[in-house]
Write a structure and sequence with these properties.
The protein has 13 helices and 13 strands. By secondary structure, the chain is α+β, with helices and mostly antiparallel strands. It has a single domain, classed as Amidase signature (AS) domain (Amidase signature (AS) enzymes, Alpha-Beta Complex). An eight-stranded mixed beta sheet has the order 6-8-7-12-13-11-9-10, with helices on both faces. Helix 2 runs antiparallel to helix 3 and helix 9 (about 300-325) crosses helix 10. The radius of gyration is 21 Å and the shape is globular. It holds the Pfam family Amidase. Keywords: Hydrolase. This is 6-aminohexanoate-cyclic-dimer hydrolase. It comes from Myxococcus fulvus. Belongs to the amidase family.
Length: about 475
């Protein structure tokens, strides 16, 4: 029996701190789990096991997670000397010459990196089945997607390979796989975690990096270890009042919670996703909170999606051409999946005026969105519109390469607003379908107010725990 598989990262670190286990024991156990589970799931696409064992044998920094195994997403998380492919054939030979600031902070926290996780190409789709690494499978049902673009991270954590893993979110890519895999996933406020040393933001203020975890306390303690501006940061989130770890278990008070099922694209919502929100609303009232149904009325939201896509497509141009400069060769359609290449071409066609207008409208949206928190502390809404779809749902057609875009818009209409406004948002695993598929519910708080989300999430975790639930592929 593996004595560590059911322990979260905080508990594993505590064993090391009390010298009841060594970092090498934790690392070896995690490597064994990866070797057992990964052939079925394809969650881990690069390994560095021997390097990890060597690191575990040497004196590690005394941090909150000394000796705990960890995985990095194969996107954004630059690690000196290791490939960073962005899930793309074009970048399969790209090897950064430095660590990103966030990776440096992970290492200072004492984490031991075991490898990289699967992602969709450039992190563009809410699934993880790219042509470079192949499809990643959901531990709850291997015929289904684990979500995306942090699907590899989610599958690795849900299956017990590691207790938590790095993830990023530019339109739901932490929250979507959290919902699909029955995990806790928090997207921090804009600027909460660093993006340096080179990037201001790779997709124009939309992306936040953090992690997928099984417990709320792991997410809070990891954010304590990484948050804060790095040198030269162009913007940063408001300072926290106290460590987030202290918010876990702290009474949230009687919160005013707005509930909405409306989405800007008019996408239908699966009955299980509706049930998840309705049941959560009743649970919140049982915990003493006030839940009032309302609408996130967004002026001009019929065109807001177009502005988001303009910024997103121009971000693809920025990413592709940035990689082109680093690799010293021009991109071509043969280097990318049809959807990515079509979105790149769409971004090239937008022009400077359209891009600047989209940026202005997105920033204006942030001001409009802030008004929805004048009389409400937190908004409750679905994370996605259906449980994890089957693999292949987001495939391109030869005559319609952008078709996955429209399918994705109907699947994730509730996620991008938090990216556009920069607000913190989380998906909490509070519901399972009769078929045994997890369904997350989403909460969005005021800009900079991760503290309220951690207090509320830990209250829900205590009242309605989820970590005892195990998928068919576990360990």
């Amino acid at each position: 029996m593996d004595p560590f598989i059911s322990l979260d990262a905080t508990a594993q670190a505590d064993l090391v701190r009390r010298r009841e286990v060594t970092p090498l024991e934790l690392v070896d156990a995690a490597i064994s789990r990866i070797e057992r589970c990964n052939p079925r799931l394809n969650a881990v696409v690069q390994t560095q096991f021997e390097t990890a064992r060597l690191r575990a044998k040497t004196p590690l920094p005394e941090g909150p997670f000394t000796g705990v195994p960890f995985l990095l997403k194969d996107l954004l998380a630059a690690q000196e000397g290791y490939p960073l492919t962005f899930g793309s054939r074009f970048a399969k030979d790209f090897v950064p010459g430095h660590d990103s600031e966030l990776v440096k902070r992970y290492l200072r926290a004492g984490l031991v990196v075991l490898g990289k996780t699967n992602t969709s190409e450039l992190g563009l789709l809410p699934t993880t089945e790219g042509s470079l690494h192949g499809p990643c499978r959901n531990p709850w049902d291997v015929t289904r997607t684990p979500g995306g673009s942090s699907g590899g991270a989610a599958a690795a954590v849900a299956s017990g390979m590691v207790p938590f893993a790095h993830a990023s979110d530019g339109g739901g890519s932490i929250r979507i796989p959290a919902s699909a895999c029955g995990l806790f996933g928090l997207k921090p406020s804009r600027g909460r975690n660093p993006t340096g040393p080179e990037l201001a933001d790779s997709v124009h203020w939309l992306i936040g990096e953090h992690a997928l975890t099984r417990t709320v306390r792991d997410s809070a303690a990891l954010l304590d270890a990484t948050e804060g501006p790095d040198l030269g940061a162009p913007y940063h989130a408001p300072p926290k009042a106290r460590p987030y770890a202290l918010e876990v278990g702290a009474p949230p008070g009687r919160l005013r919670i707005g509930l909405t099922l409306r989405n800007a694209v008019g996408a239908p919502v699966h009955p299980e996703c509706l049930s998840a929100v309705v049941a959560t609303a009743k649970r919140l009232e049982g915990l003493g909170h006030s839940v009032l149904e309302g609408n996130l009325q967004i002026p001009g939201d019929d065109t807001l999606g177009q502005h988001f896509m303009t910024a997103w497509a121009c971000g693809v141009v920025n990413t592709v051409e940035g990689l082109s400069r680093r690799l010293g060769r021009a991109p071509s359609s043969e280097d990318f999946e049809p959807f990515t290449w079509a979105l790149y071409q769409h971004g090239l066609s937008q022009g400077l005026s359209a891009y600047l207008h989209a940026q202005m409208e997105i920033l204006r949206f942030g001001r409009v969105f802030a008004r929805h928190f004048e009389d409400v502390d937190v908004w409750l809404l679905p994370t996605v519109t259906e449980p994890a779809p089957v693999l292949g749902t987001f495939a391109s057609a030869p005559d319609a390469p952008l078709a996955p875009l429209f399918r994705a818009a109907g699947f994730t209409p509730y996620c991008p607003m938090a990216n556009m406004a920069g607000n913190p948002a989380m998906s909490v695993p509070l519901h399972w379908s009769p078929e045994g598929l997890p369904v997350g519910v989403q909460f969005i708080a005021r800009f900079g107010d991760e503290a309220t989300l951690f207090r509320l999430a830990s209250q829900l975790e205590a009242a309605h725990p989820w970590t005892h639930r195990r998928p068919s592929v576990f360990g």
